[in-house]
Amino acid sequence: MSNYTQWAPDYSPLVVHFTKEPDRAMARADLIDGDHPLFTHKERPAIERLINILQSKMVYASPMPDLPNSPSAVCFTECMWDALIRHADQYSPYGVAFSKELIFEKGGGPALYIRGDILKLIDQDIPSHLEPFVVPFDPTSALQPGVEIDTVQEREWRLPDSLEFEDSDIRYIIVENIQDAHQVIQRIGLQHIPERKFIPMDVYRTIREAWREV
User: Fold this and answer.
1) DSSP 124-140
2) SS3 96
3) Residues 121, 68: contact at Cβ < 8 Å?
4) Is 78 contained in some domain?
5) For residue 14, what are the β-bridge partners?
6) How confident is the model over 116-169, as pLDDT tens digits?
């Protein structure tokens, strides 16, 4: 394992890209016009977005919010499994897990959480190659009055370009339940995605609840 991927007990060797449901608007959806590759997916349910990613072998970058130039990036989370359930509740239970090493080799890395008041000061002076990695940490609403921004719990990674991948790059596929796994397999085919790579969220929820009852 490379030196840049040494793990601590509370950090995962994987990152996950979750798709969103239509009622959870894409970041800067106003910038995703008819020419953008994500335009046709704006109103599609999260599971269909997941299937499209698996069929096209592509995760398209989208404009990032709360930054001066709305740079495009693909977002991932490096949360441990228990925190992933809360993360899925915010976005959807559908996602694709990749190794951190793959994302780093493609040009990605951990997001840079920067105070809102500092971002307000530097504004247009953020280097263009750095801006896609920046995530505001603004619990005091320095950037926009009344709007608190605090997403550090997501442990975000960013890739400042669309991610093109092979089936072999997929570590796991997260779905809500086994029925969803069967639906995805029917659409994609076992020759591309073996069953062992699917992780149903509801199985883990059941295990967690069962152990709480003991």
Assistant:
1) GGS-TTTGGGEEEEBTT
2) strand
3) no
4) yes
5) 99
6) 999 999 988 999 999 999 999 999 999 999 999 999 999 999 999 999 999 999
Write out the two tokens for 174. 């997260």
Tokens of 100: 């951190």
- pLDDT band (50, 70, 90) for residue 1: very low
* Total tally of structural domains belonging to the chain: 1
27-41, 55-69, 179-193, 196-210: least confidently modelled range: 27-41
Determine the length of the chain. Answer: 214
Q: Strand locations in the chain, DSSP E?
A: 14-18, 58-59, 62-63, 72-77, 95-99, 109-110, 112-115, 134-137, 156-159, 163-164, 172-175, 198-200
Which range among 23-32, 63-72, 98-107, 200-209 shows the weakest confidence by mean pLDDT? 23-32
Angle, vertex CA 84, rays to CA 178 and CA 49, nearest 5 = 60
Alpha helices in 60-160 (DSSP H): 81-90, 100-105, 116-122
* Inter-CA distances, 77 with 17, 103, 146, 149, 178, Å: 7, 12, 26, 17, 23
Rounded CA gap, 188 and 194, in Å? Answer: 10
Q: Under a CB-based contact definition with an 8 Å cutoff, are residues 77 and 84 in contact?
A: yes
Asked whether residue 94 is assigned to any structural domain, the reply reads: yes
Phi and psi angles of residue 14, each rounded to the nearest 5 degrees, phi first: -115, 160
